[in-house]
Amino acid sequence: MQFSPSGSALVIIDMQRYFLDPRGPLGVHLHDHFSTLAEDFYRTVRESLIPNLAQVLEAYRAARHPVVHVTTGAQGDGRRELLPHMRSRFAEERDPSPSVDGGLVCSSKWHEIVPELSPQPGEIVLNKVTRSAFTSTGLDSVLRNMGVEQILVGGVASDACVHISALDASDHGYWTFLLEDATAAFDARTHRLAVESFQRLWGVVLTSREATAALRRSV
């Protein structure tokens, strides 16, 4: 299947400070327990993930095609609406700033999307409390109401929320394209395996350069 920008939407998963800022709860936790992995991951974030995804986002905006930002976060006390295993996992990371209550709470600064990818007026922002962007949001209805047939997916993590969201997109009947160099996992090997698995069974893998070129041709 060939990527056709017309009738497509860019879906950006979890590009939040919680996951991407090395000074945040997750970053501190990773540096304390997995220092080498943390250094590699945040280098990837800085040098390729954010710049590549920002390039694709800019091209989508120029082409006036739909953009959907998806975040993860709880609104209630104790983060009880998160999946149990997510609630348990994220409880391990402690916010380094005593003035901020929790990391994956919608009122926290760590819940914010990174400035390089901040949503513009008219762009849809959905919040999820599950791994998949389809399970706990109205994403499917939103996409169908906009006439979307193809989805281009980027964000973090390529072996977790991005992976299951892309699989769900395919299972919902969308032609799904994964941005190989605008997604990342906390381990480079796991990223490669997730990308290979997706390409083998579920959809098409593109680079940010390929996607951007197609979008520019469509303007």
Number of helical regions: 8
Order of helices and strands: EHHHEHEHEHEHEH
3D shape: globular
Question: How would you characterize the largest beta sheet?
Answer: 6 strands, parallel
**Cα gyration radius (Å):** 16 Å
Low-confidence stretches: 97-101
Describe the structure.
The chain is an alpha/beta fold. Helices cover 42% and strands 17% of the residues. The chain is built from eight helices and six strands, in the order E-H-H-H-E-H-E-H-E-H-E-H-E-H. It has helices spanning 17-20, 25-33, 35-63, 84-90, 139-145, 161-171, 188-201, 208-218, and strands at residues 8-13, 67-72, 124-128, 150-156, 175-184, 204-206. It has a six-stranded parallel sheet with strand order 3-2-1-4-5-6. Helix 2 packs antiparallel against helix 3 (35-63) and helix 3 (35-63) packs parallel to helix 8 (208-218).
Keywords:
219 residues; alpha/beta; six-stranded parallel β-sheet; 6 strands
What's the short version?
With about 220 residues, this protein is an alpha/beta fold. It contains eight helices and six strands; from the N terminus they run βαααβαβαβαβαβα.
List the helices and strands and how they pair.
Blueprint: E1 8-13, H1 17-20, H2 25-33, H3 35-63, E2 67-72, H4 84-90, E3 124-128, H5 139-145, E4 150-156, H6 161-171, E5 175-184, H7 188-201, E6 204-206, H8 208-218
Helix pairs in contact: 2-3, 3-8
